[in-house]
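Worked example 2:
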Amino acid sequence: MPVGTFRVCLVVLTAIVNHPLIFPRENGTVPENTEEIIQKMKEREETLRLEQLRLEQEIAEQEAIQKALEKSAEVVKESEEEKVGWDMWTALSMVIFLLMELWRQDFQEGIWQDTGGEEDDMAVLGKAFKGVAFPDKAVLASFYEKRILGTTGDMARMREMVEGFADDLLEALRSVCNRDADMEVEDCMGVGSMYENWRVRKPFVCDLIVPFAPPEPYCFRSQTWCSGDSFPPAEQGYGTIKVCRADEDVTGCICDKTKLGEDMLCLLHSQANITRPSSEMEDLLCFKNTQYLDADQVMKWFQIAVTKAWNRISHKYEFDLSFSLLDSPGALKIKFRSGKSIAFNLTPVVQYENSDVYFISHFPRSSLAADLPSSTHWFLTFAVYERRFIQLVSKTLPANACHVSCLQILSFLHGKQCSLTGPSGLTNYHLKTVMLHLLQARPSQDWAPEKLEARLQDMLKFLEKCLHEKKLYHFFIGNGKVPAELGFPIVFQRAEPLNLFRPFVLHRDVYRKTVDTFHEMLRNMTALINEYTVHIPLAQTNGIHKESF
């Protein structure tokens, strides 16, 4: 019994000693705590490493900034040392630039004044033309008297007849038009070679322009390539015409540029002024869905109006009237019962502001406006000022001055050559432009009648020079020396010069054809003149002498 009790006590004592809650083992959790500590140490080490990298990066950036500041200081120091030198070069460059700009402006303004120099100043295109035979004074005088002078009386009679009929036709046109809805037509004006007395080739054709204006309360507001708006080079010389209400703001209200809410109204413009139906603008001859005047619509309206006007007055005349050319909507022809006919052009135009510059839709029988950018682009014509300039200068020239004679002879020679070899890029307008430049460049006494031969040579040399350089500037545009008596708009005088030969730069085939035709005309000049010249005794002339071009 005591042995059994002892054994039971021994088992109980052993259980108590080994129970974990009473006597826990000191090393029982060591492995778990060690791993956690190691993990925390690693995390701390990684944090310290990242902090070290950040500090190193900041130190590197500070060093880079310090170096940059030191380098900038060195550059500033060097700049200060060389400041005087740089200022000198800058000033010198500015002086050179200003001198070049002044030279360019002087060259553009006086580009035609060198035309009166020696023959060496005139560029030539080939050695073959240095021996061109040139008629002398007696031959030229005989040619002019026989072939050209006799046509002056015919032109005067034709102008009188055409102007009288045109006035009657336009008066009838006003009577058939609706004054409240149709365009208002003004009196016609004669322009061009027939009214400047230098047209020589038949058939004679009178060019009449007819200004028109929109009905009330509308007006025309024009924009040109030199009015500050951006126009591409191909559209230089053109402009657009906007049809607006007379009470509409010129600069345009913000309501026309911004979409207002449905519940918002403009206090300056009523809805009737802002919103115009498309049909209303088309009735005003505008391009579809725009406010810009359409040249095609204008010519269609004008043809219909002229037809109605002729039907009203045709019983008063013993001839027929018809449109003669499909590509020239304003070209009219009077046909008499005898078979004879008279052609004239009646072209509607729009006045530019309060000047005598006009927007014209097309140029009959001319390549000046052959390729319009669009039907809303109108070419500007300065024909009225050109006529006035010739009249103004003629008052200062000697009696029977030879300027018109030179232009007539040159126009005849070129036209005759084109009839033999085909048309070229040169037009009578180019020839007149040459004469206008020479009229401004040469003194008045140089245009005495006995100097016809010398001035004709000058025109030929000058024209050859322009063809060689592919540059013939419009006489009025960019010309700051236009006489103040003409009252010419200053905006066109300040514009960049307009090169009438620019198409030659773009179309090399046309240019080559034009140059070939011009040289062929020089070769055939003597033969062409002698063909229409009366016989002159050999004692009066040495025949033909040679001039070098």
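The two ends are 161 Å apart (CA to CA). The CA atoms of residues 235 and 373 lie 7 Å apart.
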